What does this fold into?
Amino acid sequence: MSYSEQRNKLRAVLAGSKCLSPASIFDPLSARVAESVGYEIGMLAGSVASNTTLAAPDLIVLTLTELAEQIRRIMRVSKLGLLVDADHGYGNALNVMRTIQELEHAGVSGMSIEDTALPLRFGQPEGSDELISTEEMAGKLRAAVAARTDPGLVIAGRTAALKVEGTEGAAARAKAYAAIGVDAIFVVGVETLDQVQAVHDAARLPIIVGSAPASLKREDLAARGARILLQGHQPVAAAVKALQDTYAHLYGGGAPADLKSHIASPQEIERLVAGETYRKWQREYLR
It folds into this structure.
C-alpha cells in the first residue's frame, strides 16, 4: 500500500514557512475525530502509545511490534500524515534499521530517533537524562537513512542535548545529525527562541519542537526555522477524564439520559466509524 499522499502532507509542512501543531492521536477512532475537525498531520507519542496500548508509563516497556501494530490500525483508516516518536529506535543501529522498516511498512509519514540513553540504566538518578555519544547516534541515523525505502518518509534526528549539554552542545549535535542526511531535527527542552535559532543555524534543517513555554508563539518559532510544535497530549487526558466522569455517573445510579449533552450522538459515532459504508457493503456482498 502506498502512503505517498500522507507523506507528502508532512513534507509540505516541513518545507513551508509556518509552524503547525499536529493532533495528538492514539487509535483509529481518535485519528478519525482529528481528521473530522480539519487536522492533516497527526502525532503518536511514545508515552501516549504506552499509556493507551498497555496502560503503562513511558518507560520503554512497549515493544516495536506493539507500536507497529497500533500504527497499522490507525493508518488503515486514516489519511493523516502521521509523525511517530520511535524513541531510541528500540536498540542499537541494527535495531534502528528494523524499526525504520517496520514503521515505514506500517504507514508512518515520519519518525524521530532520539539520542537519549534508553531504557534507564540500573542506578540512574530519577528524572535525569543521559545521552549516547554523538558518534553512536550518528551510526544510528546512518542506519536509519540506509534502511528507508521510500524517499518520502521523513526521518528526524531527535536530541535532548539542550537539557544535558546546553545550547552549544545541542547545536553541535544538530549539525552532526544533519550531515548524515536526516530531514529534520527534533529538539526537546526548548526554553527560548535563541535556542531554536541556534539549532536551526547549525543544522539548516526544519526544526520540530517537542514543547515550549506558552510565551513562545508559533509565528516567532516559525521565523527561526521551527515547522512543527507539539502541544502536549491533552486529547488522551480528556478521554480519560470523560471516561472517569461517565463511569462514575452511571456507577452511582445516574441516568444515561443525563449524559446526552456530554457525549457524541449515535449519528456522530455512526459517521466516524463509516457505518453507511459498511451497510453499503452488506447490501452488495451479503445477498
User: Anything to note?
Assistant: Residues 4-232 form a domain with the TIM Barrel fold (CATH 3.20.20.60). The radius of gyration is 20 Å. The first helix runs from residue 4 to 15.
